[in-house]
């Protein structure tokens, strides 16, 4: 079974520039995951931060492609005292990496005796938070 799946995956998926992995959940089930290399991020996935009206407005994708850079530059956009308000109205795509970043940001702010407030949260982020059981943690209830 495994050799068959490997053959099918190799024949139907280009090997370059795409990468593929086969994850076997059990001997009867396989899932093929296609991943784009990190340097092929689409332009609409870019994430920007703008300070205005007492909040930080996010624009773009909050996902595995943008989270590493966002986290690295958080000292530029998450500075200050008291409550950090993030307006997520401009977030087009979000995934579990984006949710994880928000949870980690809340924890970091808590260590600084600060709070995180989220505004205009998308249905997609709400669904991720609900499935993950963190709606209360992020004050999304």
TrEMBL record:
PROSITE patterns: STAS. Residues 84-141 form the STAS domain. CDD domains: STAS_anti-anti-sigma_factors. It comes from the Bacteria. This is STAS domain-containing protein. It comes from Aliidiomarina taiwanensis.
């Amino acid at each position: 079974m495994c050799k068959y799946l490997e053959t099918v995956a190799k024949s139907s998926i280009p090997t370059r520039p795409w990468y593929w992995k086969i994850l076997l959940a059990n001997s009867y089930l396989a899932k093929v995951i296609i991943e784009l290399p990190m340097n092929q991020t689409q332009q609409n996935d870019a994430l920007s931060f703008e300070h205005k009206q007492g909040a930080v407005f996010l624009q773009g994708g909050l996902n595995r492609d943008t989270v590493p850079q966002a986290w690295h530059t958080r000292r530029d956009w998450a500075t200050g005292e008291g409550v950090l308000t993030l307006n997520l109205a401009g977030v087009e795509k979000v995934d579990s990496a984006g949710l994880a970043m928000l949870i980690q940001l809340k924890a970091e702010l808590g260590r600084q005796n600060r709070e995180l407030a989220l505004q205009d949260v998308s249905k997609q982020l709400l669904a991720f938070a609900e499935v993950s059981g963190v709606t209360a943690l992020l004050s999304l209830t």
